[in-house]
Amino acid sequence: MISMKDVYKKYPNGVVAANGISVDIRQGEFVYVVGPSGAGKSTFIKMMYSEEKPTSGDVIINGKNITKMKRNQIPQLRRELGVVFQDFKLLPKLSVFENVAFALEVIEEHPKVIKKRVMEVLDLVGLKHKMRMLPSELSGGEQQRISIARSIVNVPKIVIADEPTGNLDPENSWEIMKIFEEINTRGTTVVMATHNREIVNTIRKRVIAIEGGMIARDIDGGDYGYEG
């Protein structure tokens, strides 16, 4: 599903965030991406949905070499992925239902299909009863659940999450992880960058550790592996 081949990324300020990364992530895997701050985790994640372009090497998503894509092809790529951010990125003037439906409206899906899919994912994240509320009327944990619902409403094969529990308290973090586990159980590949040691050490999955722009560890059922 995801393949990086000898990927380098050097920023204009001289920082090397990816230094010869090669990795394969298979369909249906759940992968944590861990490492110290500044190690290159965010760059690694952002290259998967073409927010950052590698300086050299190939990034292949769903069989497509996205490093060779033209700029006008990137929106289509992102519609095939689910991306969840730390800061939710909900549209403040739209209701919960409208925020989730928006992802399908932009691809001109039929209104009946939109309603059915939105209600299904709101049920999955446990917020169908709040579908008419605005994001400002929800707690942080609820806003993140809506963000997840929006990311999966178009049934993506891959969900990419960048510190999805970073702004949440422990109770809400565990609730969010239950949703990601359920998504993964249904066959979706999940790649999650996280600093949450407790989650990584409790819900054991494949762990890719990045240090100095390189893969330092890649272990199935691994632990977080960093102090502090």
From TrEMBL:
The protein's matches in InterPro entries, at most eight in alphabetical order, are given as: AAA+_ATPase, ABC_transporter-like_ATP-bd, ABC_transporter-like_CS, ABC_transpr_LolD-like, Cell_div_FtsE, P-loop_NTPase
How does the UniProt record describe the way this protein sits in the membrane?
Answer: Peripheral membrane protein
Q: Which Gene3D superfamilies match?
A: P-loop containing nucleotide triphosphate hydrolases
Q: SMART domains in the record, alphabetically? A: AAA
What one GO molecular function would you report for this record?
A: ATP hydrolysis activity
Give the GO terms filed under biological process for this record: cell division
- In this chain the ABC transporter domain maps to 2-227
Q: Name one GO cellular component term.
A: plasma membrane
Compartments, as annotated in UniProt: Cell membrane
User: Which keywords does UniProt give here?
Assistant: ATP-binding, Cell cycle, Cell division, Cell membrane, Membrane, Nucleotide-binding, Transport
How this chain assembles, per its entry, is: Homodimer. Forms a membrane-associated complex with FtsX.
Q: What does this protein do?
A: Part of the ABC transporter FtsEX involved in cellular division.
What does the sequence similarity comment in the record state about its family?
A: Belongs to the ABC transporter superfamily.
Q: What is this protein called?
A: Cell division ATP-binding protein FtsE
